[in-house]
Amino acid sequence: MEDIFLSTKPSEMADTLDPLSPNTTTSPGRGVFNKLRMRFCRAVPISRSNGEGYVEFGEFRAEHPGVKKVGTFAGVFCPVVLSMFSALIFIRMGYLVGNAGLLVTLAQFGMAYLIVVFTVTSICAISTNGAVEGGGVYFMISRTLGPEFGGAIGTLFFFANVVSSALCVSACTEALIENFGTNGYLLHGSPGIPDGWWYRFLYRSSLNAAGLCVSLAGAALFARTSLAIWLTMLVCLSSAFLSFFITPASMVDKPDTNHLINDTTLSYTGLSSATLVSNLYPSYGRDYTTSDGQMVDFASVFGVLFTGVTGVMAGANMSGELKNPSRSIPLGTLTALLFTAISYFALSILTAATCSRELLQNNYVYLLPINVWPPFIAVGMLMATFSAGLSNLIGASRVLEALAKDNIFGFLLRPMVSRSGNPVVAVITSWLLVQLGVMVDSLNAIAQINTVLFMTSYFAINLACLGLDLASAPNFRPTFKQFSWVTSLCGLVGGALLMFSLRPLHAGGAALAVLALVLALHVLSPAAADPKWGSLSQALIFHQVRKYLLLLDPRREHVKFWRPQMLLLVASPRQSAPLIDFVNDQKKGGLFVVGHVRVGQLDGTGDPLASEHKYWLKLIDHLKVKAFVELCLAESLRGGAAHLTRLAGLGAMKPDTVLLGFRDHAPPRDFFRELSSPYKTDIFDLENGEVIFPVRRVNAPISAREYVRVVSDVLCVGKNVCLCRHFQSLDMAAVERKSSPVRYIDVWAASAVGASTPRGADAFSVRGLFALQLAAVVRSARGWQRLRLRLFAPPDHARAPTAMHEAGRTVTLESERSSEPAATRPLRDRLEELLKLLRINASIHIVSVALDE
């Protein structure tokens, strides 16, 4: 019996879901930020995560319950401030103002902070939209854009933190040389520590090793000591501001590393309106820290300046150690932005009003000799650069650990996962890469790469939030009130324009690297096939498909643009795999729905088809067909078939043709177990010996009367019906083989098998044209193109010069025009004209069929 579309024996399939073990976090802490919190955020519900990429609301489960968490001030505000100050606040402010002038410097700070503020609103939106776990920004992006794009950006962000850490270590080394080297400002002519490329590399390596030791002790230790570091920095910075008003005009010695000028002293004028006016506009010079004294320009100045705002995500990187990331990240980051912006703008103005341009261009550490007590600035330099490098090292290790936990790179990052609270292997790997980065001698050269990497990360964050907002995802409900799609769009466009206009080669390289990683992860990453990941692409696709489905009006359908829209009713895919494959070729860009009816009823314990649906989707993937799946639970076979016929599809995309297996008693075949079958697989065999989609019994599960009624129901609702027989014998390998005896696709008129045709009517009216159209569509599919069409039509008066005998009837074939009776030639002429009109190439054969007695 050919496969029928129904099944009566329910298969026992059920999913096992591991329940979440709730863990309640501590209540939000109290402190100086509670009042400010009301300005930026509403109350955030505690959230939870199942650890597999899906974030639920209501509870947050700590990654490492044994690790004590830190609060907003120590965990976000202090790390962000220290990371943003880094090398810029004490070491490169003279480089900026001396070359770009005060007005351009303030404009560049304005552009940088504008992009950063827009990006921070996006970070705050994601961090207040549910739980945030370890990995910070990577966790946010990957849970929004999916594993491919999120993994690529996470990798890029990891390297950005590595480069930033190398930048800060190099800056800390420069501060050591300026203070404790030969003729250093604190040694007053004493020999001090030796200088040279290898000595500088030794100092960088030692500082990097010190950072490694602190990182191995744990990020929570650094977070708790960051408050003391920030207070020390505040004292040092206050002394710098105070010195502008106290220190009188004097001559400052140039550093020994500057070989571009012959003058030995440079002018510090103190507060002077004339000095301020002279420093208003750009006057680009040469960078004395480079070996060949490279010329400075707008792009190079902005590249160095932007490093002073890249530490904005230091708090988000500590998300795994925070008590309440959804509250701490927005509050701490925004207040840190405000604090650093005020500091940068004030320091720029006071610098331009007190220091000559020659001093600023030829002595980048001018704050040391003009300070009321130079050791303040020396301590500030060392503390700012070392703490920022340490913060970036810890951030890089946390991103790498998150990549490993998510199985983005498979076995390559498996050793990065640590069962303890501190990812030791990830820390050591990050330290090794930083060690490679410190081999670059020029601080400004590292800054250019660092800027492009972070701007690319900012671009991805804004893109993620823009997509979420435009997709109108119902679960995207950030409690951060200042976010909108306009802010994310401004941050996205502004960052991209600046990045490509200032450093087009670096920006293009970063974009190509991201695209290459996206493609590689899409093909190779184990996480890409994990359905538990949330992907923004699915939300965007749904949004667009819904919109275009509404535009697809069924009242505007026209026969010129007809295409097959098939509903194939299947009982057991094991024995109907060739038929499913054939209908996939038949659809030709149209709709293909695989339907299945289960006889039964809801018993109050759940939907018995819910656990079975995923196996049908796996079947579609295995057969590599482009089809939808519709399952129906009904009390009778006929009722279920009627439901599927009426309800399958959506809007204007509804099946117009229903295909059924033929009711006979042919022995069933299991194509999933036959060794020679192209559909052989064991993915539907369970470990307990049961099988998914069991082969039906030989005896038909449906009576002849009910089968005919099913066909009648389909016709009554205005659908086409195709009865499919002998498809278990279809061998597509033989069809595609050039030496195969299979050469033709035959199209028969309905009246040629016994049905009557009214006198004067063409055999190929509606039924014949439909069959001809289906045959032409099949022949256009790959694998069927070498076959030729043969068109068989009955004459008005049957004649029988040649006979072919089949069961119950005799078929008379009249194939040659020269031998056929004159009475059939008008019919042939009409058919030839019809084929020409339809642009179908087929041979015509006039046949007569007489039923045997």
Automatic annotation (TrEMBL):
Subcellular location: Membrane
UniProt keyword RNA-binding, yes or no: no
Cellular component terms (Gene Ontology): membrane
Membrane topology reported for the UniProt record: Multi-pass membrane protein
Record keywords: Membrane, Transmembrane, Transmembrane helix, Transport
Main location: membrane
GO molecular function, one term: potassium:chloride symporter activity
Domain SLC12A transporter C-terminal, residue spans: 578-664
Domain Amino acid permease/ SLC12A residue range list: 77-567
Transmembrane segments: 70-91, 111-132, 153-177, 197-220, 227-246, 298-319, 331-353, 373-400, 421-440, 452-471, 483-502, 508-529
GO process terms (BP): cell volume homeostasis; chloride ion homeostasis; potassium ion homeostasis
Domain of life: Eukaryota
Family stated for the protein in its record: Belongs to the SLC12A transporter family.
Annotated protein name in UniProt: Solute carrier family 12 member 9
